Amino acid sequence: MGPVLYRADPPEARRLVPLDALDLIFHLPSGQTHLVSEPVPQVLGALAAGPADAAEIVSRLAAAHDFDPAGAEAVIAARLEELEAIGLVWRA
Amino acid sequence: MRHQFAVRIGPVGFRIGSAWAGPIQLMRTLYADYPAPADGIADFTVRLEPGRPWRRFLRPAVEIRGDFTLPDAAPLPLAQGLLAAEMGMNLQMALGQRRYLLLHASAVERDGRALLMTGNSGAGKSTLAALLGERGWRFMGDEFALLDPFTGALHAFPRMISLKNQAIAAMEAEAPAVRFGPLMRGTPKGDIRHLRPATAAVAAMEEPARPALILFPRFGFAADERAMAPSEVFVRLTQASTNYVALGAPGFDALAALVRQVPAVAIDYPDTASAVAQVERLWAAAA
């Protein structure tokens, strides 16, 4: 099985409100509210540049944020599956 | 309907119809200070009716009907007709209110700023609001607080305060007898006696207030306080709102702004004297 490409709604389809350790996301198309933590808002932000798989999202995040990408791909892949389950991303 | 009564509570107009005169006469007395609905148009209708025609006379039982109803609500005996009317008004608000974000919370005001109190049934939010209402605060409501999603202001909903069990004696020591309704024993919620808010609170009910402090009181524990994170407050308040989902994005924006701007504290208290002292201290700190 090859890399799984994910797609998300554009940023204007969401309200993102940082609170404390958690951020609020209101997804306008579904009317659902989500309470999320890092790196979920960043992953959704990275998908604004178009569909991507976990490896591509890691390289987009590494370009924009200061972090060590070693081992990040598995973490991002797990978050993408969770985001798919709650309807914030889907397979392209 | 045979007997009718219309009243405005805060910004919301109600029309109450009843097959019996008793509950309407009682409401006219208790709500004597309150205005009629704006432009004579009620937002919600509550009807108190017998389940079967003969139930108007024979062991009369009041069924609560209106724009919104619960299919399995049990009828109440006629002696609890006032309670039926109050429950019916709450039900219309809980199921039908769309203009304001409805928070299941009590509220009091001082200097144009509002203190919100929310928590599970029995936490004491109603009793605390009633008590503070007799001690220098303006009572805004003991059941629902109305958050305007467009201005962020809190609107009062100062209906009759529904005192339960021990809270009845506690408030009889605070407020004059003329403001109390009849004692109703053995209701589904135990003993209930309604208390009319102070006249000044009714006169000022159209004035909104800026939310300034949110408390989550819990009665029956040693005095304790814990600052709450905005994310925890957000989750608790969505659970305390009956129309959060229905309001969509405006409800989200209003609630997110509220929890970002207003400090929140969980307070445990062993008795009301302790609670009042805790509230006054936290209020002074939040000012």
Greatest contact between two chains? A-B, 12 and 14 residues
Class of secondary structure makeup of chain A: alpha+beta
| Number of helical stretches of at least 4 residues of chain B | 9
Q: Secondary-structure element order of chain B, as H and E?
A: EEHEEEHEEHEEEEHEEHEEHHHEH
- Major sheet of chain A: size, sense and barrel closure? 3 strands, antiparallel
How many distinct folded domains of chain B?
A: 2
How helix-rich are the residues of chain B, as a percent range?
A: 25-40%
Cα separation of the termini of chain A: 15 Å
Q: What is the overall silhouette of chain A?
A: globular
Strand content of chain A: 15-25%
Beta strand count of chain B: 16
Element-level helix/strand string of chain A: EEEEHHHE
Terminal residue distance of chain B: 50 Å
Mean pLDDT of chain B: 91
Query: What's the arrangement of strands in the largest beta sheet of chain A?
Result: 2-3-4
Shape of chain B: globular
As residue ranges, the low-confidence spans of chain A are none
* Secondary structure category of chain B: alpha+beta
Identify low-pLDDT runs of chain B.
Answer: none
Question: Strands, helices and their partners?
Answer:
The complex is a heterodimer of chains A (92) and B (287).
Chain A: E1 6-8, E2 14-18, E3 23-27, E4 32-36, H1 40-46, H2 54-64, H3 72-85, E5 89-91
Antiparallel strand pairs in A: 1-5, 2-3, 3-4
Chain B: E1 3-9, E2 12-18, H1 21-30, E3 44-50, E4 61-66, E5 76-77, H2 81-96, E6 101-110, E7 113-118, H3 125-133, E8 138-141, E9 144-147, E10 154-155, E11 161-164, H4 166-172, E12 180-187, E13 190-195, H5 199-203, E14 210-219, E15 224-227, H6 230-239, H7 244-247, H8 249-261, E16 264-269, H9 272-286
Parallel strand pairs in B: 2-3, 7-14, 14-16
Antiparallel strand pairs in B: 1-2, 3-4, 4-5, 6-7, 6-8, 6-9, 9-10, 11-13, 12-13, 15-16
Helix pairs in contact in B: 6-8
